[in-house]
Amino acid sequence: MAFKRVFGIVIDSVGIGEASDANKFDDVGADTLGHIGEFYKGKLSLPNMEKLGLSNIRPDNPIEGVAVVDQPIGYFGKMHEISVGKDSMDGHWEMMGLPVTEPLGFFPHGFPAELIEKIEQFSGRHVIVNKPYSGTDVIHDYGEHQMATGDLIVYTSGDSVLQIAAHEDVIPLEELYKICEYARSITIDKPYRIGRIIARPYVGPDKDHFTRTSNRHDFALEPTGETDLDRLKAAGLDVLAVGKINDIFSGHGITEGVHTTSNEDGMNHTIANAQKDFKGFSFTNLVDFDAMYGHRRNPEGYGQALMAFDKQLGDLLAILQDDDLLIITADHGNDPGFRGTDHTREYVPLLVYSPSFEVGESLGIRRTYGDFGATVLDNFNVSGNTVGTSFLSELK
Ligand SMILES: O=P(O)(O)O[C@H]1O[C@H](CO)[C@@H](O)[C@H]1O
Ligand SMILES: [Mn+2]
Ligand SMILES: [Mn+2]
């Protein structure tokens, strides 16, 4: 079977239970979808993902509210991560055939003085905080100080990130981006090798009314080698990126990239792609699940976001054509019912659909997220992915 268009949607952080190596990450017991289902006590309604076979992925322990269906319309399974980390870059690069084998720099006690001093010198601003912090708490606790002094709020998390929060009226966006670009340029190599420098602009009059804006910008490390996106682009196919994808791959291998302001906007752009005539791969990331609910440990909001996504998914399913293939997966977990506020090492769901399918079957447990990219390449007869195993021939 060969498809003219493949749509990939990454529902960021929607894990489906502890991975076999969760113990190495202190994540035993993490279960993003399972715990959201438990929180909703049967009221988590995801009819479209249900009929694709979401709970069929784990029939012995179905997600509460999501039935195991007799005749799923999609193929279903779960994928294991082989990258050394559990951040978005590890997940997405691995999906596209480039697992991360060297750990990215991680600074649980803050960044070394040498680095902070360089940022201070470049920006002419004093740096405060410099430790792991929740991004909403950090502006609540230090935003007013920043408004009074113009100091830079630098913080990190359990991921390989250096984040700079800046009130848009105090440190103009353009200046913030310049500082982030500078920080990016000096943290590429070891000992830093920081996955992402993230600009975190916010607005508001006082600490109880600060809100972060969609002017967030991620300055990621460039992919360390060729990815399946590069391979598709080089083969003359269209590669349409929606949301954070463009940042995660630093624009490499993408023929057309659009930024989004929310999950809803991301799905609208995906649906708009489905209404376009193209040949190739449309690749979407929906980050709200992670940024707004997973890291905030908010199972109620996470469930609402899943239900809203499922609704829009229905609109997308309705317009897909027989020669379209849809692949839904995630890049890591971020269980809102788990301790801490960081990502969790989990299996990710794999749901695969085309209107041309008769009835779906299990794709089992995939050894690596790389099977996703391998399948896309296989479909377009493009070679180069040596990491994953295509499941194209299993689709009937
Ligand atoms: O707490 P906030 O600022 O949302 O940061 C979160 O966003 C970062 C990037 O996804 C994560 O590493 C996590 O720390
Ligand atoms: Mn992510
Ligand atoms: Mn995250």
Automatic annotation (TrEMBL):
Cofactor note: Binds 2 manganese ions.
Enzyme superclass (EC): isomerase
Record keyword Isomerase present: yes
InterPro entries in alphabetical order: Alkaline_phosphatase_core_sf, DeoB, Metalloenzyme, Phosphopentomutase_DeoB_cap_sf
GO cellular component: cytosol
Binding, Mn(2+) 2: D290, H295, H343
Domain Metalloenzyme positions: 4-382
Signal peptide span: none
Record's subcellular location: Cytoplasm
Cofactor(s), by name: Mn(2+)
UniProt entry tagged with the keyword Isomerase: yes
Keywords linked to the UniProt accession: Cytoplasm, Isomerase, Manganese, Metal-binding
Catalytic activity: 2-deoxy-alpha-D-ribose 1-phosphate = 2-deoxy-D-ribose 5-phosphate; alpha-D-ribose 1-phosphate = D-ribose 5-phosphate
GO MF term set: magnesium ion binding; manganese ion binding; phosphopentomutase activity
CDD domains: PPM (cd16009)
One of the protein's GO biological processes: 2-deoxyribose 1-phosphate catabolic process
Pfam families, sorted: Metalloenzyme (PF01676)
Role according to the record: Isomerase that catalyzes the conversion of deoxy-ribose 1-phosphate (dRib-1-P) and ribose 1-phosphate (Rib-1-P) to deoxy-ribose 5-phosphate (dRib-5-P) and ribose 5-phosphate (Rib-5-P), respectively.
Family: Belongs to the phosphopentomutase family.
Protein name in UniProt: Phosphopentomutase
